[in-house]
Amino acid sequence: MATSGNDSSEHKAETLSIDAGGTLTDTFLMDENGKFTVGKAKTTPEDESRGFIKSSKDALGSWELDVDDAFPNLVSTVYSGTAMLNRLVERESEVDVGILTTAGMEDTLRMGRGRQSYTGFSYSDRLHVNTHKHPEPLIPRKRIRGVRERIDVKGNELIPLDQYENDIREGVADLLDQGVDEIAVMFLHSYQEDRHEQRAKEVAEEVIEEHDADTTVMLSSEYYPTLKELPRLNTLVAEAFAAEPSRQQLTRVQQSVDDHGGEVGVRVMASHGGTIDIYANELARTLISGPIGGMIGANYFGRELGYDNLVCTDIGGTSFDMGIIIDNDWKIDYSPEMARLLLSLPMVNMDSVGSGTGSYVRVNPTFDKIELGPESAGDKVGVCATETDVETVTVTDCHVALGWIDPENFLGGDMPISREVAEEAIKEQVADKLDMGVYEAAEGVIKILENKLQNDLEAVVTGEGYAPSNFKCLSYGGGGPVHTAGYTQNLNFDEVLIPEWAAGFSAFGCGAADYEYRYDQTTSIDIDADLSMDTAATTAGAELTQVWKDLEAKVKNEFDKSDIGMDEVEFQYNILGQYQGQLNSIDIRSPVSRVDSPEKLAELIDTFEEGYRRQYSEEARSPELGHTITQASVRGVRDVVKPEIPTEEVMGAEPPADAIKGSREAYWDGEWDKTDVYDLHALNPGNELSGPAVLEGEATTYVVPPNYKTSLDKHRVHHLMPEE
Question: Which positions fall inside the Acetophenone carboxylase-like C-terminal domain (predicted)?
Fold first, then answer.
């Protein structure tokens, strides 16, 4: 396992970060001096706390500590898991959810949007109508009831609710007869005026009490008061359908910490880039936490080592996640796609494709071609894992057959792997069907995967208007170092970097994430161009200031739950702004916390103008149109102790004797070749190696193909480059 402190001095574990992925659970442990160690174990989806403890034990083993020794000293524990996202992907939950919505909008989930009909599909499938369809709604139509009411886009009442309260009573009674556990209420434009939703909750709770039921009512205006009814309803339903049941998983993780002497609350990685308490109101913000941890870790890594612009790539067992960091910052996506749903929550902008080391390999019988995924073996790895029931070949089976992965070293030898079983399955399921040799077929699978990843990566970078040469590519994840050379080939990145702790990098990022709560509110605040600053400050400025104050109170309430004083919290204020009449807004961090004076409002507008100029051009600025603020946000951030990136003395180019494990035959470019094998963690800074070579760690394998070389710097980061 990777560690930044391998001397024999005593360690006192203080920070614990866990990333429970679809296949493996990674642990990142840091001591009081910023030194860290990384561990890994199989993910246990049915009870993630078991994988959490086993992975923690693996990490602590390098310090000769056990969980009972380490957990009492913990001051911070951050967790990111997959249980919540899996519920959405599989459309399965332990709870039944019903919906009350504005009459006439009952089919919102079934109708969806055109964009939602093709999310998650490959580019080729998006082009053909017959290859994609609307995703299955989370809630069946029979559990959705309409209520006659209407608030308009400005918050004015058009159809009074009090005339139709019987719609609520009948709807709730029907949902209770169907046995629902949660009732989600989403009325049109309740983000502007919530009194109809609040009254609906009061009436619904009266009916629930009459039926002696144990059903909870959730309001979109209390959870996600934002524009666009489909993403808002999807997100509210996700909160009830997936987030609330997942608290049980998180509670078990907390209980496992408590059982081993820990006295610290577990926090969860949130989509906006901070960590929140497991009892936070909006838990759906943690739906996609692991990959976000990687982005946070990459940003911290870049700031510490002077890398301003990074393309982040994370390969796990189920997916390939990509993100871009420019000037040590990332973009926020306010309507992300997740589990084939459009959601209404802020998320660090990332792209993900269903290709990983656990992806299934099949032969399309119609076209006689190899196809990968999108299904994955997940934590069961592949056919080669003889203790599992996997029957379909995976990418990992091909790694094993080609000699890239040592069957005796997988997960440090904790998981039995059979090369013979992998080869036989590849022969039967792939090679024979294509009239190919086993190793030719296995290498073909790898090339197809890496070409696909390369195309996806290039599309993400160039799609944002950049060239790969402007960035350093950071590769991490358990499968990243195996394929880095393949998917970065010919893209001409400035540099390609692989941290030694790549397998635990997302967990490392969770440890670098601040304690942060964020609340957002849709607004429609116009600042007309012909208004004086005095008038604008007393109207638009006062309205925005009040929204910020309300959001600030929500953030304070979350920190109060965790007994964190406001003197420890820094507040940040943002808007989404545009020129009046435009379709799209830009994200602006406000230089002031209040805009109820002409001077402060002018400062905010000047900041918007500068941001618009940078994003588009000076010529595109149009202040004569006036301005509109479409969303307000407040973030509360408490700084945490960050991991220390290792810094060691640079030695010579030759690796030490104890780093050389020997050699074995491996298959490269159609032929077997003698391949040097090294201990990934025994190499010294300054060591340089030429391919073909395999660097084996307990949590990952780093592959250096022929005609490539790698060097290890003083921060234990590998630099991969083609041989000149």
Answer: 534-720
In a domain, residue 340? The reply is no
Q: For position 7, what pLDDT does the model report?
A: 47
- What pLDDT sits at residue 590? 97
CB 249 within 8 A of CB 81: yes
pLDDT of the residue at 423: 95
Is 624 inside a domain boundary? yes
Q: Beta-strand (E) ranges in 500-656?
A: 515-527, 570-579, 586-589, 627-638
- For residues 96 and 232, state if they share a domain: yes
Residues 571 and 705 in one domain: no
Co-location of 141 and 54 in the same domain: no
Q: Are residues 183 and 207 in contact, defined by beta-carbon separation less than 8 angstroms? A: no
Structure pTM?
A: 0.86
d(CA 276, CA 284): 11
Residue 9 CA to residue 184 CA, distance in Å, equals 54
Look at residue 271 and tell me if it is in a domain: yes
What is the Cα gyration radius of the chain?
Answer: 27
122 CB neighbour count, 10 Å cutoff: 16
Indicate whether 95 and 82 sit together in one domain.
Answer: no
Angle of helix 438-463 versus helix 419-426 axis, rounded to 10: 80
Closest CA to 419 of 449, 383, 469, 443: 383
Tokens of 410: 């997988």
Q: Extract the residue ranges of the chain whose pLDDT is less than 70.
A: 1-9, 22, 34, 83, 120, 122-125, 129, 131-132, 412
Q: How many domains does the chain have?
A: 4
Q: Do 538 and 590 reside in the same domain of the chain? A: yes
> What residues pair up with 709 in beta bridges, in sequence order?
690, 721
Return d(Cα 478, Cα 480) in angstroms, integer. Answer: 6
Residues 6+ apart with CB under 8 A from 214: 181
Q: Yes or no: say if 498 and 484 are a contact pair by the CB < 8 Å rule.
A: yes
- The residue type found at 235 is T
Write the CB contacts of 255 (distance below 8 Å, at least 6 apart in sequence). Answer: 49
- Which CATH number does the domain housing residue 271 bear? 3.30.420.40
| DSSP reduced 3-state for 369 | strand
Instruction: Please say which residue of 638, 666, 683 terminates a domain.
Output: 638
Residues 223 and 107 in one domain: yes
629 near 527, Cβ under 8 Å? yes
Phi, psi of 451 (to 5 degrees): -65, -40
Please report the pLDDT score of residue 319 as a whole number.
82
Q: Are 109 and 203 in the same domain?
A: yes
Which three-class secondary structure state does DSSP give residue 37?
Answer: strand
All residues at 6 or more sequence positions from 678 whose CB lies less than 8 Å from its CB, including other chains: 655, 659, 660, 661, 689, 693, 694, 695, 696
In a domain, residue 464? The reply is: no
Query: 40: domain range?
Result: 13-86+247-286
Q: Output the pLDDT for position 630.
A: 96
Q: What is the 3-state secondary structure (H, E, C) of 302-365?
A: HHHHCCCCEEEEEECCCCEEEEEECCCCCCEECCCEECCEECCCCEECEEEECCCCCEEEEEEC
**Alpha-carbon span 361 to 425, nearest angstrom:** 11
> What are the distances in angstroms from CA 317 to CA 244, 379, 384, 394?
26, 8, 14, 10
